[in-house]
Specification:
Keywords: DNA-binding, Transcription, Transcription regulation. The protein has 65 residues and is an all-alpha fold. It is 68% helix and 0% strand. α1 crosses α3, α2 crosses α3 and α3 packs across α4.
C-alpha cells in the first residue's frame, strides 16, 4: 500500500522525529515530507497524522519496535 518513501517517513514519525528532522535525515525538503504524509492520509481516508499512524498499525503496514 505504501511506497518505500512513505513508509520511511511514517517510521520516522512514529520514532518521534519532526517534519524538519525527517526531511534532514532523508535529504528531502520539508514540503516533500508533508506531501508524503498527505498522500498517505488520502490513501487511507483519514484526517490527521495520528489517525494515519493508527490505521497503518491496524493494517500492519507499520510495526512498533
Amino acid at each position: 500500500m505504501l511506497t518505500q518513501r512513505e513508509s520511511e517517513v511514517f517510521k520516522l514519525l512514529i520514532a518521534n522525529y519532526s517534519t524538519k528532522e525527517i526531511a534532514q535525515r532523508m535529504n528531502i525538503s520539508d514540503k516533500t515530507v508533508r506531501n508524503h504524509i498527505s498522500n498517505v492520509m488520502l490513501k487511507l481516508g483519514v484526517k490527521g497524522r495520528a489517525q494515519a499512524v493508527v490505521e497503518l498499525l491496524r493494517l500492519e503496514e507499520l510495526k512498533l519496535d
